[in-house]
Amino acid sequence: QVQLVESGGGLVQPGGSLRLSCTASGIVFSIYGMGWHRQAPGKQRELVTTISSGGITNYADSVKGRFTISRDNAKNTVYLQMNSLKPEDTAVYYCKADHLRAYWGQGTQVTVSS
Which residues in 1-114 belong to E strands, given as ranges? Predict the structure, then answer.
């Protein structure tokens, strides 16, 4: 079975940093595009960032310059480094793997609050 398992979420103060990890199993990780999406309660899920199998990245304007996506194919893991966090970054963050079909992780909570 395919599994995507996120970790690294938690409570952080505004201006702080957090690094999320997503480790995949059951897929040939290197051929999948990977991404992070987030969803706050009562709001639509939104795309945060993606990284292609070739390493091309894109970011939502709201996180550009603050967040960095990276991947380590040897570890079947994609990361999201989040710096200069703001309260509006508070959401459940979901990892996604895309190739012939999409797979989703279970999500990890990120809360930015004083």
Answer: 3-7, 10-12, 18-25, 33-39, 46-51, 57-59, 67-72, 77-82, 91-98, 102-104, 108-112
Would you state the structure tokens that stand for residue 67, as one six-digit string?
A: 């967040």
Please, which residues have CB within 8 angstroms of residue 100's CB and are 6 or more apart in sequence?
none
Residue 104 near residue 22 (C-beta atoms within 8 A):
no
In tens digits, the chain (114 residues) has pLDDT values of 999 999 999 999 999 999 999 999 999 999 999 999 999 999 999 999 999 999 999 999 999 999 999 999 999 999 999 999 999 999 999 999 999 999 999 999 999 999
Region for 26 from its dihedrals, namely left if φ exceeds 0, alpha if ψ lies in -120 to 50, beta otherwise = left
Alpha carbon distance 59, 50 (integer Å): 7
